[in-house]
Amino acid sequence: MLLNMKQLLEVAQKHQFAVGAFNVADSNFLRVVVEEAESNNSPTIIAVHPTELDFVKDEFFAYVLSRIKNSHVPFVLHLDHGGNLDDIMRAIHVGFSSNLMSHFLTSFYQFFFSYIRMGNSRSARRYSNNIHPNPPPIKKYLSRFSLIINF
């Protein structure tokens, strides 16, 4: 079953258990992670780093989603440390349920005006108008200028 990060972590916090996150970029590793999560009945985060987006096609994510949506175990499909708005746009299109947008290379000014004040930025309008008619809830995570989006 596919959940967003907020849903999964609320349950984990309530019942006081940790959730493993595994970076996956091929079907063999995905199979192992999903099978082990199911055999241990353990909720899991399937994480994909943005550099891996260049090496896998959308069909891979269709397979990932098919596999985890049909599982009895809760999963999050998470884009980890997305580097730019295009990463988020692709993640939304292929069905990711969570995203961490990092801004290590972005100035505070760009971060503040592009993401904290979503409605006033060109990037935000592009995101909200062209990608998602009902934008997902956004959690602003200000430590190290990161932004978490739960779809």
Describe the structure.
The chain is α/β, with parallel strands linked by helices and 151 residues long. The chain has a single domain, classed as TIM Barrel (Alpha-Beta Barrel). Helix content is 46%, strand content 21%. It contains seven helices and six strands. It has a six-stranded mixed sheet with strand order 1-2-3-4-6-5. Helix 5 links the parallel strand 3 and strand 4. The longest helix is centred in the N-terminal third of the chain and has 13 residues. It is globular.
pLDDT averaged residue by residue: 76
CATH topology-level name: TIM Barrel
Order of helices and strands: HEHEHHEHEHHEE
What's the total number of strands?
6
Strand order, largest beta sheet: 1-2-3-4-6-5
Query: At the first level of CATH, what is the class?
Result: Alpha Beta
pLDDT below 50 for ≥5 consecutive residues: which ranges?
Answer: 116-121, 127-132, 135-147
Radius of gyration over all CA atoms, rounded: 16 Å
Q: Fraction of residues in helices?
A: 40-55%
What is the helix tally?
A: 7
Strand content: 15-25%
CATH superfamily: Aldolase class I
Head-to-tail CA distance between termini: 14 Å
Name the CATH architecture.
Alpha-Beta Barrel
Give the CA-based shape: globular
Described by strand count, sense and barrel closure, the largest sheet is:
6 strands, mixed
Domain tally = 1
Structural class: alpha/beta
